[in-house]
Design goal:
By secondary structure, the protein is mainly beta. It is 10% helix and 32% strand. It is built from three helices and 14 strands. The chain has a twelve-stranded mixed beta sheet. It has a two-stranded antiparallel sheet with strand order 1-10. The longest helix has 13 residues. It is globular. The two termini are 20 Å apart.
Amino acid sequence: MTRRATVAAISAVTLLLLGCSAGARTADRPAPASTTGADAATTTTATELLTSGTEFVDRTSFRSDVDIAGQLTTLAHTDNVNKRADSTLSAFGRVTEIRMIDNEVYLKTELDLPGAGREWMKLDPARVPSDFALSFAPGRNDPGGSARLINAIVSARADGPHITGTIDLTRVGAGNGITVRPGPDGFPDSARRTAFSAMLDADGRLVGFSIAAADGLPSATLRYSDFGAPVDVVRPRGAVTAPDALYPQLGLSG
């Protein structure tokens, strides 16, 4: 990680971990980057393939993996149809777990959060900040955050199931999945045209999205797999009511 820019990972718990400061975008779906130019039609075709390749999010269960330069990793199993999900974030030797069952949200973390313990806690969904992004609602239910990546694409070309191009990291913003936030010195100029590659499977589903390391920015990868596999989530025994002190530490305001 550099002072110029930070790339973080999944489920907004990472935001809490990294202590992100003001200036982050909080919208789940920022406006698409401009694709004007001679390759606009080619880019549009490629991004439409990517967008249709994520329709499985609302239709079947899946696994998502995020890896930020091997330092931050997340694993999530999600079934938006039956409202079941679990995710595990590992960063700097600390683990945070989340379980979601219908409208219930449970969290357990090894982070040192003032006023909160390390046992399983049951959160009040009404008190969870909107930018914490724990939801089964369409548009907010992809722990991989693929929509924000696709909307930040500057140029792209499809060669069969392979899609390559450039992405504007300054437009990725914060939310589920790969999160990009500026450091105190802002973004390097190269962040506006960083190389990426993506892969579709035989059914047209997005199974991989990789962002190359460049100019001090770490590499980042997103993978989807295990489509249709059962997602069994168990309510933690002995979960305590989350303390008031926890909520201000969640999301971008944490």
